Write the structure tokens for this entry.
Amino acid sequence: MTGNQSFQEPETPGGRIEIADAAIISIVHETVLSCYGVVDIGPRSLGSTIVRKLGIATPSHGIGIENNQGNLTIELSIVVEYGTPIFTVARNVMQTVKFQVESTLGLSVERVNVNVDGLRVSGPTTIGNQL
Amino acid sequence: MTASVRAAAPAERWDGRDIFRAFEFASRWLDHHRDVINALNVFPVPDGDTGTNMALTIQASVDAARTATSPAHAGNVAARLAYGSLMGARGNSGVILSQIFRGFASAISESETIDGPDLARALEAARDMAYKAVMRPVEGTMLTVIRIAADHAEASARQNASLLTVLGDALFGARQALARTPDMMDILKQAGVVDAGGQGVVDILEALHRYAEGNTVIDDAPADIPVGATMHFLDDIAELHGEDTFGYCTNFMVFGNDMDFDRVRSDLSAMGQSAVIVGDDAILKVHIHTEKPGDVLQYALGLGYLDQIKIDNMALQTEALTAQRQQEHISGMLVPAISVTGDIGIVAVAAGSGLSAALKSMGANLVVQGGQTMNPSTEELLDAVQQLPTDEVIILPNNKNIVMAANQVLALTEKDVRVIPSQSVPQGLAALSRFNLGDTLDQNTNDMTLALANVQSIEITGAVRDVELNGIDVTTGDIIGVLNGNLVAAGQNLADVVHRALMAIADVEAELVTVFLGEDAAETATAELRHTAESIFPDAEIEIIEGNQPHYQYLISVE
């Protein structure tokens, strides 16, 4: 899903700029890692868990880029902490990724699709709704 | 603009109703400061909505707590607060706040009422829960602020502190952490702001502390800053997130009616790069890098009328221009500044709200919390000195053990700092009374140091170990009277110790006796003290002030 594609900007007054998908992915990866509520990137399958445990996961894991002439669609797969407002977390991820990619790379991000592929339970599981 | 929930005396314990009222006040307090927080918002996305999001989130909490089934049960109310924040969380800051409330509630779920140590436990759990929900915590944010606040609360609870003291210490820690957020995150430093979410946490803790003090009047100026108008940092947005090296940096405001904000934002964003668009349906502030500023303005004209249009050719912007803008930026910006009248700033050290207020009313610009059992570090004093806008600063350590830390500040700052070696708060106050705005730093230092000698200061406190000093036997738990740093009386009877301590200076021709009551001073004992002081110093005026200081039942100055 990533390959060695790159985005090539039309000739600008100063020269030509090329941004490889791998560069975009690494920015997305860094951004998502520090998004609040996200506790993992990548789908929660047995295979991916093993890959992560072995430490051979690449940054592209769980992140897909579709590059339509400089208009990006970013596909994300994340695991969210149970007990956080999941929709709000996902929306924040969407906005933060869009902002970071657009501001650091100057590319336009058309869509950020966030797939919440799992929840991690580490805190209390009742949160006052039964009271 | 003034509204009070109720004027409560500092309570030993909070039940569910207190927790509800405290958070209800916090909700109104935060709403009041919403626009100030919005104006600080540069991270993670500079969209100027952190204050609004936090205010709405805590509002949802309070609404849920209003319908608690056991409104007197602390754990039940806290759980409802957490639930409401989860359901109503808005934005990134709202999500973090909901985790903080969740941790807070989990620690006291079984408690009917909570005291100081319980509250500290809840804050620690809030801290731990907040950190649990993120893989890579970003420091310099509200996470840092709640962490340091909880650390301070924890330390405070180890000494079995009261609710009020725990909150005071947590607030103190939170403020310190907030002040350091620009050092932890470059983007904040460049924008000249502290972290917006962190400011929100400080505001919430401040509101809880105010409630604990019984002060639920919203007394500072209303923050009716129109959204967008305060966002000066957007003018320098290029410095915030990397330079685009060609195209036009285009900034303007749009005044319209019923604009569809989300649609306008997405339309405009599509017209260029690094777009930052904030506002509401009536006012927009737009920043965008575009090759065709004309198209952007044409579009915006269809929405309403434009103002403050500024278009820069980024290719021509020189380093010098950037530097100049940053300079203007830093000098005119949003860091909550401490205002100082005149050229000399004054930093004083004291513990307790009453002593702090007394020092401030006498002219101290900043009071660092600290005293006998919690000496502030050199770093804390240095921070305070640096926070003041003046190049000349006087420090009043107000304790023998803090004088040395204060002296070390001299070597660490470029500012011209003088330390007046005051050994007690009364001495500090006496020194402040000699401070003269029109005089030079040298003259003031001289006058203030001389003033120290004219004050007899007596501290009444509890002995923490057995000792024999100056021929006086002291047993742990005794009440001791210390005159100008020397032990003069000890015993089991408070009134007796006070009497003997005052008698030690009975030959002084006193004009004014000032008594600062400690946080647990009893009324009857205070009446007796007034009587004793009047009989020993018949010509003196006796002034009694609620100092609320910990550890010292009384601080007495005779001058």
Remarks:
- Chain B has a mean pLDDT of 82.
- The two ends of chain B are 41 Å apart (CA to CA).
- Chain B touches chain A through 50 residues (CB under 8 Å).
- The CA atoms of residues 252 and 309 of chain B lie 4 Å apart.
